[in-house]
């Protein structure tokens, strides 16, 4: 509230546009407004016919939301559930405003089958028969399936089973799984492809280290307990990132390594902890094996060598080691955004080793969280929906696990190992894959993360797609099934803290003849004569999962509906925020393994295999620099840059931010490029994109890096003006990119 000339106004401090005010468009001000003065623009006058509780499908935090649905089965509002253990009443711009695609009129309404080169409407039976016939001719390693992180656990389980059992192929993956290395090192050490702690215990961590991750945009609510604890003065935050991201404003210490050198930097921290006597040797001796071998691997990680390789001053490395190892319970969150290819597995091994070395695992406020993308990415790891593993965190290389699943499913499990989803599309481009099933759409199909995906699809003989909307994928498909979106499905998602949560049917657009991917996969498998796909719905599929995935033992649909908090609200004559009015029966989900610890911690007494298996770690030197692009562009985004007021212009009915870009360079690089402070310059990245701005010199940026920070308001305006039905699903990640700078 601001008071101006005797009038009380609701607004930003100086009456600025929200785009320039540091607003992150979380919508919390709307949710707490008791009188409706603040409300969503869309559906402003809509009254709900009913409300339904489900889970946000935009990121792995898995916020529990209450959705308002109107008489026409349109979802008109999303309100984060005040007492849900996953989000405690919080949400972000994606979850609060990103559901609109459910109501979009551009949905695919009927199955389509390609006849005489044209996609034509068909009945479900015709489409299923066409898919079964086309796929039956291309079984084995000529087949691949790409699932989606918005798929439920039941769909992901069915997807990998379809590939392995119905098609005899191990080429199955999830579109978001472009960096499995960040969980592989955890599985190597602890036994699971998963983090060890919960989101909200981060509020009780004495120290948090966030490595190369853009929490505010990608796992937003995870940042909330961290910011609160930092503001309260109970937590020290270390950010390791070459980009400037929102959390760097909260950091006690911001380390800016050369992009891709994070594993070396963590190795330097570990060596520093060992050399300074900060390691918790009682914990190490009791709970881990492989310590001596690990320490031997750290020989090259001297402070001087690590500082030279990463560009981070030695004293900052020492300071970070002291904070992480010596403050009390410490958490380590990592995304590997700037890491390169195979170095991510080393990164996650380093993360696990740091946690074990300091005793920061298995106790409240301590642990590790891998920051992957995708609402149900964890479900993909749990269900074995990728080539490296089988359901239940078993490696595909384990012959006894392959035998066990072969016996359960009635067919031998293929053992061909596909090195990842990027290589899968490369194989398709080379003709090694002839047929694919693509479940849904994803930003990685268009942003280059997985290479030339459309080129790969063009090279296929046969493509089956499930999709809610027409896309570049459906244009190329031979059979298209109209897919239900998350709000129309029943099933489960597993969030970043291993919480298996019920996803409930929120709305159903009766004019669209859509089905879930689970129904499609089962119908096609059945038409092909494959056994084991006759579940009568997601609840029965979940029962099979609970039988074959030991971590899900004890989880059933009925139990998930019973696991709830009954919140008693006091009646009041005063106006109440919608959040307060809606909280009641809060479905809490169940963390796997069920019943092992009270507060959701993994490994309180023992690791999966008893002791933690510390892994050898290697030194990864910087990749060779392409002389055409000698710098790395570290593009970050923040909510606000104090002291730099942007220009806000109005285009149509929308505000837009305009401001001069600043390229921050180490003076040595600026001199090499014949640039000085304030010079106009252009930065061109290897993908051909060009930006213009002015040069700012700073020793804080390591040599070889050009740092660029843009405003979140620019992204918000871009998403708001997008004409895509589902713009939140198309926000590209801020990766470091090879670049060159030149005067203009
Ligand atoms: S940050 Fe959230 S609560 Fe604050 S003004 Fe923006 S939308 Fe409202
Ligand atoms: S933090 Fe993630 S799960 Fe929560 S509202 Fe945002 S996108 Fe949805």
Describe, in plain words, how this protein is organized in 3D.
- With 744 residues, the chain is an alpha/beta fold.
- The chain folds into four domains: 102 residues, N-terminal domain of TfIIb, CATH 2.20.25; 246 residues, Rossmann fold (3-Layer(aba) Sandwich), CATH 3.40.50.740; 198 residues, Dimethylsulfoxide Reductase, domain 2, CATH 3.40.228; 113 residues, Beta Barrel (Barwin-like endoglucanases), CATH 2.40.40.
- The strands form ten sheets. A seven-stranded mixed sheet has the order 7-6-20-19-18-8-9, with helices on both faces. A six-stranded mixed barrel has the order 27-33-30-32-31-34.
- The radius of gyration is 26 Å and the shape is globular.
- It starts with a strand and ends with a strand.
- 54% of the residues are buried.
- One iron/sulfur cluster binds next to helix 1.
- The site of one iron/sulfur cluster has 7 residues, from helix 1.
Instruction: Give the N-terminus to C-terminus distance in angstroms.
Output: 46 Å
Assigned CATH class of the largest domain: Alpha Beta
Return the average pLDDT rounded to an integer: 94
Task: Work out the helicity level.
Answer: 25-40%
**CATH-defined architecture of the largest domain:** 3-Layer(aba) Sandwich
The number of distinct helices, counting runs of at least 4 residues, comes to: 24
C-alpha Rg, in Å? Answer: 26 Å
**Class inferred from helices and paired strands:** alpha/beta
Total count of strands: 34
């Amino acid at each position: 509230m601001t008071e101006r000339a005797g009038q009380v106004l609701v607004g930003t401090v100086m009456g600025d546009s929200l785009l320039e005010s540091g607003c992150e468009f979380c919508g919390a001000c709307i949710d707490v407004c008791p009188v409706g003065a603040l409300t969503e623009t869309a559906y402003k006058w809509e009254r709900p016919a009913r409300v339904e509780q489900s889970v946000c499908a935009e990121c792995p935090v898995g916020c529990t939301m209450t959705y308002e649905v109107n008489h026409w089965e349109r979802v008109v509002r999303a309100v984060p559930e005040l007492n849900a253990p996953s989000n405690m009443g919080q949400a972000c711009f994606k979850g609060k405003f990103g559901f609109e695609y459910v109501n979009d009129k551009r949905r695919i309404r009927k199955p389509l089958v390609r006849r005489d080169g044209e996609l034509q409407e068909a009945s479900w039976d015709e489409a299923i028969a066409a898919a079964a016939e086309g796929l039956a001719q291309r079984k084995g390693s000529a087949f691949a399936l790409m699932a989606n992180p918005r798929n439920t656990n039941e769909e992901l389980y069915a997807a990998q089973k379809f590939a392995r059992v119905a098609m005899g192929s191990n080429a199955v993956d999830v579109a978001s799984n472009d960096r499995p290395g960040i969980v592989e090192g955890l599985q190597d050490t602890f036994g699971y492809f998963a983090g060890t702690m919960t989101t909200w215990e981060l509020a009780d961590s004495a120290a948090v280290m966030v490595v190369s991750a853009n929490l505010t945009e990608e796992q937003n609510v995870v940042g909330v307990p961290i910011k609160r604890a930092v503001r309260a003065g109970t937590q020290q935050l270390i950010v390791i990132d070459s980009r400037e991201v929102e959390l760097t404003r909260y950091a006690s210490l911001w380390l800016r390594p050369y992009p891709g050198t994070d594993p070396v930097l963590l190795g330097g921290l570990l060596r520093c902890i060992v050399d300074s006597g900060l390691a918790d040797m009682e914990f190490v001796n009791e709970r881990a094996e492989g310590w001596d071998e690990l320490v031997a691997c750290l020989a090259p990680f001297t402070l001087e060598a690590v500082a030279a390789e990463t560009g981070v001053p030695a004293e900052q490395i020492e300071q970070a080691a002291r904070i992480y190892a010596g403050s009390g319970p410490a958490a380590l969150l990592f995304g590997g955004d700037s890491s390169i290819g195979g170095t991510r597995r080393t990164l996650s091994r380093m993360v696990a080793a740091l946690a074990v070395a300091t005793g920061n695992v298995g106790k409240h406020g301590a642990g590790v969280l891998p920051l992957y993308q995708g609402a149900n990415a964890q479900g993909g790891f749990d269900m074995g929906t990728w080539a490296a593993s089988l359901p239940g965190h078993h490696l595909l290389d384990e012959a006894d696990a392959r035998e066990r699943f072969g016996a359960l499913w009635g067919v031998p499990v293929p053992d061909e190992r596909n090195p990842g989803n990027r290589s899968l599309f490369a194989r398709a481009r080379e003709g090694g894959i002839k047929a694919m099933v693509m479940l849904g759409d994803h930003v990685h199909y268009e942003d280059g993360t997985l290479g030339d995906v459309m080129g790969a699809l063009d090279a296929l003989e046969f493509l089956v797609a499930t999709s809610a909307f027409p896309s570049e994928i459906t244009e190329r498909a031979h059979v298209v099934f109209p897919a239900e979106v998350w709000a129309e499905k029943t099933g489960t998602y597993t969030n970043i803290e291993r919480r298996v949560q019920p996803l409930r049917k929120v709305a159903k657009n009766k004019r669209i003849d859509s089905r879930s991917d689970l129904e499609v996969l089962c119908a096609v498998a059945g038409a092909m004569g494959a056994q084991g796909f006759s579940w009568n719905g997601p609840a029965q599929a979940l029962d099979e999962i609970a039988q074959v995935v030991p971590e899900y033992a004890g989880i059933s649909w009925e139990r998930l509906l019973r696991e709830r908090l009954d919140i008693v609200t006091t009646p009041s004559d005063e106006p109440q925020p919608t959040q307060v009015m809606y909280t009641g029966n809060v479905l809490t989900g169940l963390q796997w393994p069920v019943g092992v610890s009270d507060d959701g911690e993994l490994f309180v007494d023992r690791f999966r295999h008893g002791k933690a298996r510390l892994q050898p770690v290697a030194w990864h030197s910087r990749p060779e620099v392409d002389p055409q692009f000698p710098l790395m562009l570290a593009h970050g985004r923040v909510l606000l840059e104090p002291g730099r007021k942007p220009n806000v212009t109005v285009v149509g009915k929308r505000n837009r931010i305009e401001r001069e870009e600043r390229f921050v360079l180490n003076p040595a690089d600026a001199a090499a490029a014949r640039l000085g402070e304030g010079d106009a310059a252009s930065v061109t990245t290897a993908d051909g994109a060009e930006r213009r701005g002015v040069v700012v010199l700073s020793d804080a940026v390591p040599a070889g890096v050009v740092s660029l920070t843009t405003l979140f308001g620019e992204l918000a305006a871009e998403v708001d003006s997008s004409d895509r039905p589902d713009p939140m699903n198309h926000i590209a990640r801020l990766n470091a990119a090879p670049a060159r700078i030149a005067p203009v």
